């Protein structure tokens, strides 16, 4: 129910109810996620295939300046998560930003936020199962199995894990994150050793000379760095998962600030630090899009089974992303369904307090991705990855708009801000929104894929408008029913 609707309720409604309206979609969840789960979900959201695999092609195109791109995008990603963290402490909700959009933007805002997030994760899920199938083909024992079969098996396994219980999801994400962090730390220790000892790496002597002698920080100029920004933003997608998971932890006021604050140094160490290290070990031209940059370095120094180990880690990262996507969309769709803006069955929960209806809907879209892997296996990954970027940018913009309205209402005395705050509002939100929209506009400079993705925006807008006209009566009826309950 929107904040405006609450404000219009008769005086019989209490002030507290008007200030912090409960989201009906939050009812029925267990609180089984522990602090270690939330912390590792935050780490897992910050580290994924965007670094393990995507950094290779971006280093080749942008050179060492990629580290600056990761740093800049990381700062804005931190602003988004910090804003979401403040909203979480104001009112924890498994509906997360969709619930906040309902309160500060009304039902239309929640409808757009929810379905764009669903677009992001359902298409990301397709990209993930495609990636899993591709990485599995790395080993000869699986090359004879069709790509679509491997994609279907991966989807079935992660679906089963998500349907059992939120605790199993948390444990799975915990260990996925441990694997990713341990791998990065191990690589960085090896890289620092190679750098300190000036050990030969594929015929090159590590050091700053590999940057200065190969075109400097911007070997191909500024434009390639600008063009990779959109891909770098996507690499940080899933950081907002902390806000969703907070609705299923017993002490969000203690866990969330710690998890959000740690994101910044993790970005600095893992993303910026590893890219700087990669640039100091080999020239950017040596890296490629079809191989993990970490595998490239380790294979150049003759470390046995480097490819196998890193391929397993990248496979883990893709499984983690798919796992997170099913988890988060299940909760978001349930919040929407209780408001009437998503199909009724997505509000259903099983005996383990898992919203299986929404998870199955996301899974159904991913099954379409299995078909995509069957029809165009070589293009499936690139097609859906760009569509997903539209969803994540819109989600982050909505979070910042919600926070801006929240702060304005706090200044008017309608709500109370928690101690954990995003500083310099509304300047921080406005600058972040502008940056995200610029990143979206940069896609126009990529005529092959990016420009075609932008052409989808009018189509998505038409579908959203048509969908709203399909659900608005149900949403209105639900709002009227909540108003009646408030005045009893």
From TrEMBL:
This protein's record includes keyword Membrane: yes
Subcellular location: Cell membrane
Ranges of residues in domain Amino acid permease/ SLC12A: 37-474
Residue runs in coiled coils: none
InterPro entries documented for this protein: AA-permease/SLC12A_dom, Amino_acid_permease_CS
GO BP term, example: transmembrane transport
Keywords of the record: Amino-acid transport, Cell membrane, Membrane, Transmembrane, Transmembrane helix, Transport
Annotated transmembrane regions: 38-55, 67-89, 110-135, 147-165, 177-197, 217-242, 263-289, 309-333, 354-377, 383-406, 427-447, 453-471
Gene Ontology cellular-component terms listed: plasma membrane
UniProt-annotated stretches for the region Disordered: 1-25
Composition skew (Low complexity), residue ranges: 9-25
Gene3D superfamilies per record: Amino acid/polyamine transporter I
Topological category with respect to the lipid bilayer: Multi-pass membrane protein
PROSITE patterns: AMINO_ACID_PERMEASE_1
Family: Belongs to the amino acid-polyamine-organocation (APC) superfamily. Amino acid transporter (AAT) (TC 2.A.3.1) family.
The protein's name: Amino acid permease
Organism: Streptomyces seoulensis
């Amino acid at each position: 129910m929107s904040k405006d609707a609450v404000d219009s309720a008769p005086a019989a409604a209490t002030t507290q109810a008007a200030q912090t309206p409960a989201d009906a979609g939050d009812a029925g969840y267990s609180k089984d996620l522990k602090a270690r789960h939330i912390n590792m979900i935050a780490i897992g959201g910050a580290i994924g295939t965007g670094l393990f695999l995507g950094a290779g092609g971006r280093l080749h195109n942008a050179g060492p300046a990629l580290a600056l791109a990761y740093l800049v995008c990381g700062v804005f990603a931190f602003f988004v998560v910090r804003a979401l963290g403040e909203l979480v402490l104001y009112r924890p909700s498994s509906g997360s930003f969709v619930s906040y959009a309902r309160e500060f933007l009304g039902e239309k805002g929640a409808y757009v936020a929810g379905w764009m997030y669903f677009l992001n994760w359902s298409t990301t899920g397709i990209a993930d199962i495609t990636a899993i199938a591709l990485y599995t083909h790395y080993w000869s024992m699986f090359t004879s199995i069709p790509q679509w079969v491997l994609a279907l098996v991966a989807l079935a396994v992660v679906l089963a894990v998500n349907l059992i219980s939120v605790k199993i999801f948390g444990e799975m994400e915990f260990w996925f994150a441990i694997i990713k962090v341990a791998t990065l730390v191990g690589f960085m220790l090896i890289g620092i050793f190679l750098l300190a000892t000036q050990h030969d790496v594929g015929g090159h002597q590590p050091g700053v000379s590999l940057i200065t002698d190969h075109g400097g920080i911007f070997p191909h100029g500024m434009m390639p760095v600008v063009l990779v920004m959109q891909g770098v933003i996507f690499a940080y997608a899933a950081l907002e998962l902390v806000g969703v998971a907070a609705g299923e932890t017993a002490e969000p006021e203690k866990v969330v600030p710690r998890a959000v604050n740690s994101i910044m140094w993790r970005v600095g160490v893992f993303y910026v630090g590893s890219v700087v290290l990669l640039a100091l070990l080999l020239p950017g031209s040596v890296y490629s899009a079809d191989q993990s940059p970490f595998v490239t370095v380790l294979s150049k120094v003759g470390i046995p089974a480097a490819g196998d180990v890193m391929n397993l880690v990248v496979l883990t990262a893709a499984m983690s992303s798919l796992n997170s996507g099913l988890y988060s969309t299940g909760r978001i769709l349930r919040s929407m369904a209780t408001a009437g803006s998503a199909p009724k069955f997505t509000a259903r929960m099983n005996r383990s307090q898992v919203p299986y209806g929404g998870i199955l809907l996301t899974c159904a879209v991913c099954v379409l991705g299995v078909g995509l892997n069957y029809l165009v296996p070589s293009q499936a990954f690139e097609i859906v990855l760009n569509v997903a970027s539209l969803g994540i940018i819109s989600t982050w913009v909505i979070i910042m708009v919600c926070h801006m309205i929240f702060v304005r209402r706090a200044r008017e005395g309608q709500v109370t801000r928690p101690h954990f705050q995003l500083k310099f509002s509304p300047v921080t939100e406005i600058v972040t929104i502008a940056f995200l929209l610029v990143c979206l506009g940069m896609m126009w400079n990529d005529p092959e894929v990016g420009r075609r993705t932008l052409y989808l925006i009018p189509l998505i807008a038409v579908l959203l408008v048509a969908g709203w006209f399909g659900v608005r009566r149900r949403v209105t009826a639900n709002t009227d029913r909540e108003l009646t309950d408030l005045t009893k």
